[in-house]
Each structure stands twice: as C-alpha cells, then as structure tokens.
Design brief:
Elements lengths: L1 H4 L3 E3 L3 H17 L7 H12 L4 E2 L1 H5 L4 H11 L5
Antiparallel strand pairs: 1-2
C-alpha cells in the first residue's frame, strides 16, 4: 500500500505484487531453514519483487531517482510489526 502513496510513484504495486512478495518471502524463509517469515525476509525480497512493478513520476526520474531507491525509502519509513 505504501508504494501507491509515495510521492514519487506514479503506479504502485497492486494485489498481485503483494501475493508475489509473500510467496518470495516464504521461499526465502524456507531456504533459510525456517518455517516462518521474518521482516528481514520481506525486506530482502522487496527489491527483486517490486522493482519492475513500480513506475516513477517523470519529474523524479529526470532528477535521477531510481526505483530501488524508492523501495529502500519506503522500507525505512514502515514500522516493523511486533
């Protein structure tokens, strides 16, 4: 949801992106030998899953802002659930 509200994003991630992120995080956890997902799994998979799904506003692209940077900004702003 935060990708759709970010000021530099024209088109944010939709419901299928959320599903893909959850599946990728589950796979990351399984590869780590765990049967549960941690916030670090979500952070690790956010870039690879979301980078091609976001479209930035042209004025931010012209300034040199990249999608990877936007994803990192969003992850830093979000509180980790407890």
């Amino acid at each position: 949801r935060a990708t759709r509200a970010h000021e530099s994003v024209l088109v944010g991630a939709g419901p299928r992106a959320t599903q893909s992120l959850i599946q990728a995080a589950r796979a990351c956890a399984a590869l780590g030998g765990r049967d549960f997902v941690t916030p670090d799994d979500i952070k690790a998979m956010a870039g690879p899953v979301l980078e091609h799904r976001l479209i930035l506003r042209p004025e931010f692209e012209i300034e040199g802002l990249g999608v990877a940077e936007v994803i990192q900004q969003i992850l830093q702003q979000l509180a980790v659930p407890r």
